Amino acid sequence: MTNEAIRDLEAVRRVIENGEHFLITTHANPDGDGIGSEIALYHYLKSLGKKASIINCSSMPNNFEFLTTNHEVRKLNEDDSTAVFKEYDAAFVLDIGNYARLKEVGQLIEFHKIPTICIDHHPKEEDKFDHYFLDTGASATGELIYDLLKGLDAEFTFSMANAIYSAIMADTGSFRFSNTTEKTHKIAAEMLELGVNPESVWSYIYGDIPPERISLQVEVMDKIQYDLDGKLAWVKVSKKMLERAGATSDQLEGFADYIRNIRGVKASVVLLELGDDLTKMSFRSKGDFDSNLFAKKFGGGGHKYASGARITKGYKELIPEMLKEAKELMLITNQK
Predict the structure, then answer these.
(1) Which regions of the chain are under pLDDT 70?
(2) Domain span at residue 179?
């Protein structure tokens, strides 16, 4: 797969120089890469004497709250509509993949005609932004934030370094996924030189598992199903399963990766029930199986080995379609 790169550094520089108040946002149900990237950029803008606000359409995961000191990240609320959004000179949209994933925040950006800068390592699916700092060859959006700040001659503080390191760690699976490169490790090493403690970061992100997540994991692992001679592992997670475990949907984070690691499995799918006719699908794969192509069949997208989609269908209608598409893609993969 050919990398796509649009690094308009000078355009970003001009936007920052000419503006005073900036919005920073990321996709719905933000992950560590989105949150860490937001916080690093926030601290950079503040270091220039600029005003910056991080507003997302979803709450931030609890395991990344250690990166915030003054509740810098917050969820959109009813008071944010016209009064707040009309103040922004530009909006930085991070790690987005698809504009629709901004939900209400994206609608407000469009309504107020706020100039936009997209910083991302996902493929550009639509031309929705005014400026881009995008590279699909980057391991994480956090890596692109590092490159951007380097290009802008930023003086990295501990807060910036801690956030960048956390973003990269999260999106590379603690530096074990195939998107990890020599450059990724060099950036990580530089962040350690600035005082980042890798054991501490890992413990905050992965080492403080709530009991309800374990209960949910037991439920999920007991219901894994296998198809295509064991090459596809999938599981459906109902609202009742979440209720029994006392867990929330964000505590499913990482389950699709875990299932993918089962011996013989080439692709995994976690189907989360969001409503009677609304399902969230998380795809993971390895080898030659392209989960991004899988996700696109359902209107989603992402990366080769990690992607997702939201579908306005219930389980009964969706599962046969999912198995059919998986079988077709598996045949194509085996023929390569």
Answers:
(1) 1-2, 81-82, 335-336
(2) 5-206
Total number of domains constituting the chain: 2
Maximum separation of any 2 CA atoms in the chain, in Å: 59
Q: Is there a single domain that holds both residue 285 and residue 174?
A: no
Residues 185 and 229 in one domain: no
Q: Is the alpha carbon torsion for 221, 224, 230, 231 positive or negative? A: negative
Q: Tell me the per-residue pLDDT of 291-336, one tens digit each, with 9 for 90 and over.
A: 989 899 998 888 889 999 989 998 888 999 999 999 898 887 774 5
Identify whether residues 16 and 59 lie together within a single domain: yes
Same domain, 227 and 330: yes
Residue with tokens 């309800």, as numbered in its chain: 212
Q: How many other β-carbons are positioned within 10 Å of the β-carbon of residue 220?
A: 20
Which of 154, 183, 206 represents a domain boundary (last residue)? 206
pLDDT for the residue numbered 1: 54
Between CA 118 and CA 92 the distance in angstroms is: 6
Count of other CB atoms within 10 angstroms of residue 314: 16
